[in-house]
Specification:
Helix content is 81%, strand content 0%. It is built from five helices and no strands. The protein starts with a helix and ends with a helix.
Length: 177
Amino acid sequence: MKAWGVAVVVVLGLGVTGCATTIDGTSSVDGGQVSAYRSDMSVAAERSEAAESSRRAQAARNLTLELCSQFTTTVVTMLNSYNQFVTKLNEVQSYSALDGAGEAAIGQLNAGEQAINAKLVPDVEAPVDQLIRDFLVRNQALVKAVQDQNRSGLNDPAGLWIEARNKAVEACGELTG
């Protein structure tokens, strides 16, 4: 048993001695190395900021493309419904004889607006965002004209609706083209 105890003491002694080695050098910092380190960290931070900015721009572009996709699809349905209403109104020459065509057009214009608004989020790119918001203002004016049963007063709001739609469609097309 004594031999075993001596062996443990020898092994422990070697372990302690192994940890007591010294390292050559000084405890002072080389100013050139500090400057180089700071420069490296500054470049890394700038690259990180640029990468984050690029990610934000790509996210905004994706949201804008999603809005444009919704807009261009939805506006076709809105226009078709409105055109059916106008065709019927021209045919019967009376709102009372429309058999619900006015309400159907209003419903489709409002449903389309809701679908578009669902994709109109804060990070959408500014030019498209504003053009689609302008279109939605024109849409509400057209809805009001139909609700008010205007006959001669439909042309102006419909013309402005078409103009706003065309501008938004063109802006969306520039993103994909």
